[in-house]
Structures are given as C-alpha cells and as structure tokens.
Design brief:
about 325 residues, mainly alpha, Rhopdopsin 7-helix transmembrane proteins, globular, GPCR_Rhodpsn, Leukotriene B4 receptor 1-like
Amino acid sequence: MTFLYVTGTPTNQTMAAVEDKVIPTVFLTMCFLIGAPGNGLVIWTILSKFPQRSFTIALILNLAVADLLVILTVPFWTYYFVKGWVFGDFMCRFLMYLVYLTVYTSIFSITLMSLHRFAVVVLPLASQRWRKPREVYGIMLAVWLPAGLLSCPCLIFSSREMPKGKCTDEFYDSENQRLAVNIVETLFAFAIPFAVLAVCYTYVARKIRTLKNHKEMKTGKLIAAVVGAFFVCWLPYHILNLITISALLLRHAKPEVSQKLLESIKTLTNLHGAVAFVSSCINPILYAFAARSFRGGLRETNFAKLFEKLRNDTEEKLTKANTVSMQTL
C-alpha cells in the first residue's frame, strides 16, 4: 500500500481534493522542521559523546539515523503534492525504497529495544552477552539487512510505466501480487512486532509490581513512550492496510464491496501517510521532555546526560543481577 497518492494536477481538482493535499503538506513541513534538527542533534550527541555505546544507546542511534533518512525525503513529497512528480523514475523508486527501509529499520529497532528491556528486567543474566560491542554491532547489521530485503518489493512495483506527474508503488501485474505484498508488510511491520512487544511488556509489567524501588524504571518509561508513539503514529496506516487486504480477499465473492473499500481508502492515503511521518520527528521531543530534570530541553548537553542515564541504569541492573547470581553460587 502506498504512503502518498496524488490524483491529478491542481488545475483540475475540486476544493476538497486540494484540501486533501494542503493538510498533509502542512504535516510534512512541520515534521521536517522538527525532525531534521532534532534527530541530527541526537545523532551528533551520541557520536561525539559515546564512543563506547551500550546496546540501548546503539539502538537509539539506529532509530535516529532511520528517522533522519526518512525526514530528508520530505521536501520531495511536499513538492510532489504541489507540482506533481518531476524527479523521474529512478528517484521515485529510490525514495520509496528509502521510506520502506527506514520504516522496517525503525520497527525492528524498537522491537529489539523492547526485547532488551525485557531481558534486563526479567532475564538480566542472559542479557549480559548484549553488552559486548561485537554483539551490539552484529545485531545492528541484522536489523538493516532484513529491512533492506523486505523493502525490495517497492523497487519492483514503483513507477512502472509511470503516468506523468505521479509516483506510486502500486503498479502490480495482478491483484495476487498486491495482496501478497500487503500481507508481508502487515505481518513483518505490524503484527509480529506488536505480538512480541505485547508479550515483553506484559512480563515486564508483572516484574515491575514486585520491585520495591520503582525509580529504577524511569528510563523504562521513556523507552515505552518511544514504542507507544511509533505504534500510535503507524496504526492508521496498518488499519488501512488491513482494509486493503480484506477488500482484495473479497474481490471475487463481493466485487462491489471490494471496489468501494479500495476507493474509500484512497481519500485517506495522503493524510494517514503524512501523519505516519510524525513518528520520525517525535522521538527528539520525547527525549527533550525526559531531559527536563537536567534544566533544559533540546540541547546537546541535556541529551548526553539523558543517554548517560539510560546506559547507567541498564549497566546498574546488570551489575546487581550478576552480584546476586554470584552470591547464590
């Protein structure tokens, strides 16, 4: 399912259609103005202040890089809304691929972040192996490689015999191809990660109830906020994806219903696609709120203190777990 859909040129559109472009354009512009400097600050802070990165800090860096990459595509999409696509077939395919790549990278990074929090709280001894730099960067590579592979369908189905002024990733040879792509996307970008996150946070919540010192879980709340914000921003997209799958499955049994469903979601594609980009600019805002206790917000020094606290809290939990284990031997 495509993120952005342009139905024509402004000269032949109704006022409602123009409004469908104006609102997403405003959303995208705001995302760029906040996300580009915000994620840039996060990346610069981690690279300059943390030469030796813990697993959590490496994942935050991974997430910020993915968010910055997708934010840098925003000027192309905003121009697309106003003037149509003028950047050619290669750029359409490349930018579509970059968007999907960063989406998969983000969800995989967030899932790993939650698994790590689960391991630190519930299985602290087992999580100690994630402290080694070699394992950290190996897992980072394992995030980007499957993300790159799962993003490949948009290279195949983007812009084939592209109509003038359009860029889309939905040029399928058959409805079965479209159905398969949407099912894979829903499974790996939503259903499976959501199931993993649900299990992790269910067990973590049970563990937290047994802890006497709830202050140790403050950094866990920040990670939970990052996870929650991502899913809230992308939930509308995946709901429409499920509607698309349902419509395609009904195309033979109830063709009229199927066609109405497919036509109805086209009017929402631009809006939900633009809102989804909010997830790429919201993390620096969450970090800024979390850094308020350091007397400031969106500043490098405060971000560095926050990330240091994230690292130290994790290291402290692992050290305590190791001490308890040694005492029981």
